């Protein structure tokens, strides 16, 4: 159980922490200091480095989560916070899959073509999805850490 929980927490920290850094810290600075010809390649390259880690996380989180549920005796023994965590986690995965296969691909193509208006549109879609996923991720972390005390 300790190994599964450690991997689970590490994957969550990498994914949610990465979104927090990108959205809360880097986005305002990049927007204030860089014009689209510099800003859009920065984001495209940042995502190229970050998204492989997200892929690891979206595999590790469900695997370790279901592993821990099995070790606890199945869903009937899992608290409400675990069920909520599963729901928000799978929603986050679905949102990431959309982000990766739609607006991120458009961003890469726009940057390669130096089509800054199209790249800006794609980046704005990515920003919106990351905002939603960050909120879900922070809620999920709060639920995971304190939910068993709230829901009994």
Automatic annotation (TrEMBL):
InterPro entries, alphabetized: Cu-R_CopD_dom
UniProt keyword annotations, A-Z: Membrane, Transmembrane, Transmembrane helix
Pfam families in the cross-refs: CopD
Segments traversing the membrane: 6-29, 50-70, 82-101, 130-151
Residue span(s) of domain Copper resistance protein D: 46-143
Protein name per UniProt: Copper resistance protein D domain-containing protein
Lineage of the organism: Bacteria, Pseudomonadati, Pseudomonadota, Gammaproteobacteria, Oceanospirillales
């Amino acid at each position: 159980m300790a190994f599964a929980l450690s991997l689970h927490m590490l994957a969550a920290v990498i994914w949610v922490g990465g979104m927090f850094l990108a959205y809360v810290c880097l986005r305002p600075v990049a927007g204030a200091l860089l014009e689209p010809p510099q800003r859009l390649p920065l984001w495209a390259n940042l995502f190229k480095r970050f998204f492989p880690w997200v892929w690891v996380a979206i595999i590790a989180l469900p695997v370790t989560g279901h592993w821990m549920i099995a070790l606890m005796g199945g869903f009937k023994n899992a608290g409400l916070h675990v069920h909520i965590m599963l729901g928000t986690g799978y929603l986050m995965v679905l949102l990431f899959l959309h982000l990766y296969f739609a607006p991120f691909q458009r961003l890469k193509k726009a940057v390669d073509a130096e089509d800054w208006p199209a790249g800006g549109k794609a980046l704005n879609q990515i920003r919106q999805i990351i905002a939603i996923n960050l909120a879900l991720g922070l809620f999920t972390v709060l639920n995971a850490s304190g939910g068993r005390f709230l829901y009994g």
